[in-house]
Every structure is written in C-alpha cells, then in structure tokens.
Amino acid sequence: MNDSKDLAPLVLGDEDESGEGWRRDAKRGTGREVRARLTRDPNGTRQKLLDAGFAEIRRAGIEAASIANIIDLAGVTKGALYHHFRSKSQLANAVIEECLPAYVDDIWLDPLAFEEDVLPALMAQVDRLGTDDTPEILAHGCPLARLASSADDMDDATRKRIDGVYRYWRRGLAGHISRSQFAKYVRTDVQASAVAEFIMATLHGYLSRPPVLRGAEVHAAFAGEYARYLSGLRP
C-alpha cells in the first residue's frame, strides 16, 4: 500500500495486563530478583476488543458506540480495554485502520486475486448478495459505507482515515481490473481507477438500503443492470 501511513496499525505496547510477577535472573547467576511480565495472551485480548469495537461501531456509529457494550461483547474487563486503547476514539481509529481494510480484503478483493478475467467474479459477488450465502458482515449493509455516512460529524483526522480505506479498496480493485485489461478481457479504453470508483459507489448505493428493502425483485433489477454495465466493459 502506498498510503501505509494512513492505514498503519496502532501499536500501543504489550505491557502485562494481568499484573506483574517475580523470577530469579538465572542467566546472570547473580541471584538478583527482577520483574517479569506474566501475560494472558494480550494479542488475543486486543483482537477481541477490535472485533467487538467493529461490531458496536457498525451498529451504532462512532459517537454512539457504547464502551460497556464493547466490553461485554469482548468478554474482558474495562481495565483490559484501557490497557490496549486509552480512549474510545483510539479504539475507533484502530477499527478503521485495521478492521476495515481486512473487511475490504475478505469480501471484495481476495475473491478477485487469482482471476485473469475479473468480470465474472465481480458479477458473482453481486449474485451472492441475493442468496442465503450473503456474507454475514453485510447483513446490515456495507460497514464502510455505514461508517462513512456519518463523516460530516467526524473530525478531519477520522475522515482521512476512512478516505484511506476507500483509496486502499480503489487501488486494489483498479489493479485487478488492469490485470484483466492486460489479458484482453476488459476494454483498454476505460480507466481502471474510474471503473473501480463506479463499482464501489454502485455497491455502496445498493447496500445502503435496509435489508427489508432489498427483496428479490429489487436485487434482480440491481443485478441485471450491474451485469449490463460489466458486459459493456468487454472489448
């Protein structure tokens, strides 16, 4: 990623979250007792907090996200949360920088990774949205679009982080489209980044509708027009 500074994970240290113990420094043979950190899988605890934070922020947005709900979902103590993240804002930043790019990879980019012709794979992603095989993470719409919908209420730094995720998605998708252009499956007179931007906007528009308003008839209409657009990209 060229914009790694926008998406670099937050690392706040690996201090012991279970208290400190003692051990004898046998290596030096001095008999001097030194402090040793006794850990309870701090990396695992941090990931639980990220997952819980992601779920809560998807549900309520950053401002309304509840620390109590995050703690309950993660199954940890408040002390453990504040050991890894000094504030709700810092946890939200980590969710944006780590969880959202991972979501983009898992749902939208990885399925295209080994396809010379990405158009059928792109169509399959939309077809899947109308079946019982829809990824659970999309049950309430695209989490990135949901978060971005409240961008007007965010500070500049948070908006830039979210924009960094969009740029990451656009670069990745444009790269896959360019590969198909090189293999002559996609027209070369279109700009890959513009196609990627249009596809992302189209998916966000559809997934921004509540699930109850995305019935079979609506999905069929959307999928048909999406397929028409993709067909128009053929040489």
What does this structure look like?
It contains ten helices and two strands; from the N terminus they run H-E-E-H-H-H-H-H-H-H-H-H. It has 235 residues and is mostly helical. The chain has one domain (4-231): Orthogonal Bundle (Tetracycline Repressor, domain 2), CATH 1.10.357. A hairpin with an 8-residue loop joins strand 1 (20-24) and strand 2 (33-37). Helix 2 (42-60) crosses helix 5 (88-109). Residues 1-39 have low confidence and may be disordered.
Quick description:
The chain is mainly alpha-helical and 235 residues long. Helix content is 58%, strand content 4%. It contains ten helices and two strands, in the order H-E-E-H-H-H-H-H-H-H-H-H.
Spatial order of the strands in the main sheet?
Answer: 1-2
Spans where pLDDT lies below 50 across 5 or more residues: 1-39
The rough form would be described as elongated
What is the mean predicted local confidence, pLDDT? 84
Q: CA-to-CA gap between the ends?
A: 30 Å
Strand composition percent: under 5%
- CATH level-1 class: Mainly Alpha
Question: What's the main sheet like?
Answer: 2 strands, antiparallel
Jot down its keywords.
elongated; two-stranded antiparallel ribbon; single chain; 10 helices; Tetracycline Repressor, domain 2; 235 residues; mainly alpha
